[in-house]
Amino acid sequence: MSDTLYDVVILGSGPGGLQAAIHASRKKARTLMLGRIDNSSLYWAHVENYCCQIKISGEEILKKGRDQAESFGAEFRDEDVLAIEPDGKLFSLKLESGDTVRAKTVILATGSSRNKLGVPGEKELLGKGVSYCVDCDAGFYRNEVVAVAGCRSAAAGGAVALTNFASEVHLYCEELDVNEGLRRQLDETGVKVHEGVSIKEIRGENAVSSVLLSDGATQDVTGVFIELGAKGVLELTAMLGVQLDENMKYIEADKKQRTNVPGVYAAGDICGPPLQMAKAVGEGCVAGIEAATYAKKLEKDE
């Protein structure tokens, strides 16, 4: 499947992304959705404020949405995107499996939450060695020793990327949950993977100097990268040049869910509050229709 071309590629598997997949595929656009539904915050929730549903689990909604999108021809891959960049008028996306796919349009629907470790020193040293964005901050750690916290693709992919800058990269996780392709990259790049070990405290006065680990050991580091999920808004937008709001937290999109980058759309929590399923579904509908239309127009112009 490497280098396959899609009309629409959707990042994120929550309600906004699923609704976009339904509408894009109904318009006969070749549609690929990337991500695991259990990464969506809705997966663990119970919904009772959505129109026409008295009470339903988020897991059930997401599974039904996926089945519905697949019935219209949408394709799904339960893996995350490690890198995305412009490729002429198209976009090239590197997946955690090592495959690359190309897209005429991209819909960002990855949600907005930034998972925290919740350990002493994390908040106090944010911006002083604690970071949630490898792609944004890796360059500040040339020839330094750094730590990465996380078990999934964002952490593993971030650790691999950091080896291009840091002299030593330590990845701490309870149990690594990535595919074999990404595991091989960790081995090949020399990342020191510590499974079954977690960071319990981040230490330092005015800057990070070390981390206290769950096994009682201490590791001297100058940077701690917290990557507890899939690639988030900061990383993906940094790669594409997508405009964020003044607080650098949400993507700016117009009423057609278009960003400032032609061919890139956004929907759901990533576009800002209210962080509700009803809003995400509405924006996903618009984004799916607009992205499919744009992709077909691009095809005619070729």
UniProtKB/TrEMBL annotation:
<dbReference type="InterPro" id="IPR023753">
    <property type="entry name" value="FAD/NAD-binding_dom"/>
</dbReference>
<keyword id="KW-0560">Oxidoreductase</keyword>
<dbReference type="GO" id="GO:0004791">
    <property type="term" value="F:thioredoxin-disulfide reductase (NADPH) activity"/>
</dbReference>
<dbReference type="InterPro" id="IPR050097">
    <property type="entry name" value="Ferredoxin-NADP_redctase_2"/>
</dbReference>
<keyword id="KW-0285">Flavoprotein</keyword>
<dbReference type="Pfam" id="PF07992">
    <property type="entry name" value="Pyr_redox_2"/>
</dbReference>
<protein>
    <submittedName>
        <fullName>Thioredoxin reductase</fullName>
        <ecNumber>1.8.1.9</ecNumber>
    </submittedName>
</protein>
<dbReference type="InterPro" id="IPR036188">
    <property type="entry name" value="FAD/NAD-bd_sf"/>
</dbReference>
<feature type="domain" description="FAD/NAD(P)-binding">
    <location>
        <begin position="6"/>
        <end position="284"/>
    </location>
</feature>
